[in-house]
Amino acid sequence: MLTVSGLVKRYDTRRADAFAVRAVSFDVAQGEFFTLLGPSGCGKTTTLRSVAGLETPDSGEIAIDGVSVFSSAKGTVVPVAKRDIAMVFQSYAIWPHMTVRENVAFPLEAMGVNGAEAKRRIESALSIVGLTAFADRPAPMLSGGQQQRVALARAIVKQAKVLLLDEPLSNLDAKLREQMRVELRDLQRRIGTTAIYVTHDQDEALSLSDRIAVMKDGAIVELDTPQALYLRPRTTFTARFVGQADLLPCTVVERGADRLALDTPLGPLHSTVFPPGLDGTLALLVRPEHIEFRDGEAAFGRNMLGGVVQRVLFSGRLVEYVVQVGAAALRVQATSRSLKAEGDRVTLHLPPERCVVVAGDADS
Amino acid sequence: MRTIEALPAQSAAPGEVKRPIAWARWLPAIGAGAVLAYLVLVPLLLMLVSSLRPGGFPLDPGWTFANYATVYGAAGFPRLVGTTIAFAIGSTALALALGIALAWLIERTDLPLRGTIRALVILPMATPPILLAIGWAMLLSPRTGFFNLLIRDVFGLAQSPFNVFSLGGMIFVEGLSLVPTTFLFLSPAFRNMDPSLEEAAITSGAGIGMLLRRILLPMLWPSILAAGAFLLIVCLVVFDIPGTLGMPARIFVLSTQIYYLAVDSPTGVPLYGQVSALAAFFLCILFVLGWAYHRLTRQAQRYRTITGKGFRPRLMRLGGWRWVAFAGVSAYFLLAVVAPLAILFWTSLMPYQTRVTWAALDLVTLDNHIDFFANRRVLEAAGNSLTVALVAATAVALISVVLAWLVVRAKIPGARLLDGLAFAPVAMPGVMLGVALVYVYLTLDLGFAVYGTIWIIAIAYVTHYVSFGTRLANGVMVQLHPELEEAGAASGASTVRVLRRITLPLIWPAVVAIWIWVVAHALRELSTALMLQGRGNVVVPTLLWDYWSGGEPNRAAAVGVWLVVALVIFLSLWQAVARSRLERSS
Asked: Domain A2-231 class?
């Protein structure tokens, strides 16, 4: 549905290293929810705006449903208005001089759709986002969440091939954000559109996406499904950026077919998740919620560690512990079903299938 | 809509596509640049040429520096410069002192009736400077001035204590006339300061003195400096008040000297060569000041503390000083509006200049007012004034909006140059612009007459007020979130449709505000019209000037009264628009 290849955008043509985006390529399938995730300044918004046509890249190719909309080789630049896209902006960009209905009607007006067909599509878009009752309100007299829905309705009424969303939830408060997240996912499934979503919020990316491209410094670092990115990241950057992570330096002691024996500051550990090539510096990723307390068991055996609880952070549903294991400190997350106190001696189990070896320096 | 960054040829690495520079994207810049160049650069250039001609006209034969020698070698030149600078600095200082006090009292203290007073600040703007000067001439002239006679009677003085026809008098009246401008400049800075910044200082243990010295003043300083630079420019070029109060006492400043050389020269022939040479010198100073102002306002932007969060500024409790402050503010209004307009109204009802006494009430007559409506010359002037004002306002609004869009939004190549060119006329004295346009339309043959018609005045006003119009339009365009327009494009609308359906409706209040502002100012502008005066293009301010300088103060007063009425109507319209814009944006 969407093909982006070799996208390059410089923000300063005089400086050799001033890239906003360097050689970004990806394909998005029909009906897929695809997310560009990364910290601010990583080039995710520039990439999205290039697809929309709001930025003109310096080189590369962009095609929507097989139709080339940008090609530096052929010199094609299709203007924004002629691209088969719809977009939801971070600021919502609701036109304050129009009512809700007029805002939603605008894309149809621009495309020359009118009469009964337009009316039907407007009503349907408004009912999908649940704003039928507010249709004749002036746009500024809406709450943040309602403005968000107007922006969505305005985007889906166009029935474009690709829906582009630029951090649409970042201006909402936490509760509303979670609610809108669910609605957004349902809505995309229901209308079956292809969505490209930009965010810096990993929770949002994980819960919404079919696939996520993690970006850093203008390039895609990793591209995979949410599960794969979270459970089997290949770089320390992704491991840290997606989810909480404790990273420990490690060296390979023995390599089996599906199992590695490692030497770590915690002592010897086994891992069953590792990249095919084991070159360069390696780090061991352990996520706090994957570590299990094995009360009453002795700290012997494979991936079993003995330690002392140093700190307890109680936040209701979950409890965070810092456990001192030898010279190293390890974060452990558990539910509040059973509680430990500071100074308790505990036994920890690190499941080998959740001990992930990633490329990169643990301290960087 | 968006520009494509051109890659310099040498930076295109092998395998990368070289994009040819699209000449088409220069077209808007060239178009807008041509209009601005015609309005701004052509007059300046011809003025420069004329200063180097023996005969003083751009098409005269020969080249010479004699004009410069005459002007700068004249015995009175240092004194002329000294007077001009003293006048400018004195008036600026007075206007700043009063304006800052007023802005602080209205925006940040619990002054009684703050809201009403804020609405009334606009009133002095409805009083054209020439009327203020005439009013004060009637109040403080040494022989017949109302206040002078009053004080003489009360204290039994043999001589009048004040003489308004002096440098001090000029500074006093000019300072008063610029207070509203100063207030309008500074009140947003006072109002929009995030109170949490002050609260942070207070919770850090700062007292009032430290708060003022370390937090408030440093934060406001860029705004105050920018306002000061702007006022200084205005005072250096202003004509009305030095013309009314200084010329009778033969106290000349730059603008009145130019007027004198061009209209009233001792030889009886306009000394255009010398006028140009004089203007060239001051133009240099003014451009330096204009540049400084531009820099200062940029700096002021950095300090902008608007956070978009709704907040109420902290109001300082004045306690017992509340009513003292209120009396001070009332005194300002008395001096800047009530007294001058009252004496003007009184004089307009008198057959000749008389003292204000009960006995004189028997003389009250409406003759001057009847004459105002019956006199064909007056009606013609009023018609001309309205035509010029409406045409100029429409043109300025149109040019300003197009320029602002090109400069702020489309970011066309050469945008900053265009912006500078549009702003430059702010530093051109009205008399100088007038002279320069005389050259243009006596030199260029367009196939139809412009010189001596109202159109030459309209062109002058467009040139002059575009500098203001673009400031306002730029400000509004900057505040307009670009995503509002991008959402239009992403909806599938063409650039033209986005402009028509989204951009224009959203900035419409600003367009109206520019339009009304220009109408109000064009109605009262004197100096340019005076320089461009011919047989067929008399406007109300020049008529007023003719009556006043021709020794008919009562008729002048009647014209003044009706001018004020017209201006009050337009300015209340402006306020209404401004208020509706505020309500919409909140």
From this structure: alpha beta
Q: Looking at B323-400, which runs of residues are DSSP E strands?
A: none
CA distances from B277 to A241, A346, B65, B72, B288 (A): 69, 94, 9, 9, 18
| B490: nearest CB among A8, A52, A109 | A52
Task: Compute the distance between CA of residue A171 and CA of residue A173 in angstroms, rounded to an integer.
Answer: 7
The residue that leads in pLDDT, B373 or B202, is B373
What is the DSSP secondary-structure string of B456-520? HHHHHHHHHHHHHHHHHHHHHHHHS-HHHHHHHHHTT--HHHHIIIIIHHHHHHHHHHHHHHHHH
Residue-wise over B343-365: b if at least 16 C-beta within 10 A, else e? Answer: bbebbbbbeeeeeeeeeeeeeee
Examine the pLDDT at B310 and tell me if it is beyond 60: no
Domains in chain B (CATH in brackets) are: 366-586 (1.10.3720.10)
Q: Which residue of B has its CA nearest to A97?
A: B506
Q: How far, in Å, are A22, A48, A198 from residue A45 at the CA level? A: 13, 5, 7
CB contact under 8 A, A96 and B584: yes
Task: With both helix axes pointing from N to C terminus, report the angle between B272-302 and B415-423 in degrees, rounded to the nearest 10.
Answer: 120
**Unique residue bearing structure tokens 């040494």:** B142
pLDDT at B434 over 90: no
DSSP string across B411-465: --TTHHHHHHHHHGGGGS-HHHHHHHHHHHHHH---SS--TTSHHHHHHHHHHHH
User: What is the C-alpha separation between B394 and B518, in angstroms, rounded?
Assistant: 9
The pLDDT of residue B22 is 53
Of B16, B17, B492, the CB nearest to A81: B492
Tell me which chain B residues have a C-beta less than 8 angstroms from the C-beta of A109. Answer: 493, 501
Contact residues on chain A for B487, CB-CB shorter than 8 A: 87, 89, 93, 95, 151, 154
Tell me how close the Cα of A331 comes to any Cα of chain B, in angstroms.
37
pLDDT digits 0-9 by tens, A104-159? 999 998 888 889 999 999 999 999 888 999 999 888 788 888 888 999 999 999 89
Mean pLDDT calculated for residue range A54-82: 91
* Long-range CB contact pairs, A318-321, < 8 A, 24+: A320/A288
Q: For residues A72 and A4, what is the distance between their CA atoms, to the nearest angstrom?
A: 12
Domain spans of chain A, in order of start: 2-231, 244-359
- The average confidence (pLDDT) of chain B is 82
Which of A10, A54, A81 comes nearest B2 by C-beta?
Answer: A54
- Give the model confidence (pLDDT) of B512-549 as tens digits: 888 888 888 898 888 888 888 877 888 999 998 988 88
* Chain A residues inside the 8 Å CB shell of B6: 13
Beta pairing partners, A333? A320
User: Quick one: residue A214, left, alpha or beta (phi over 0 = left, psi -120 to 50 = alpha)?
Assistant: beta
User: What is the CATH number assigned to the segment(s) A244-359?
Assistant: 2.40.50.140
> What DSSP designation does B205 have?
T
**Min distance B542 CA to chain A CA atoms (Å):** 43
Question: Residue B47: pLDDT above 70?
Answer: yes
Contact B139, B146 (CB under 8 A): yes
Q: Say how far apart CA B248 and CA B583 lie, in whole Å.
A: 48
Tell me, what DSSP letter sits at residue B37? I
What are the beta bridge partners of residue A283? A249, A358
Angle, vertex CA A310, rays to CA A305 and CA A312, nearest 5: 110
Q: Specify which residues A320 forms β-bridges with.
A: A313, A333
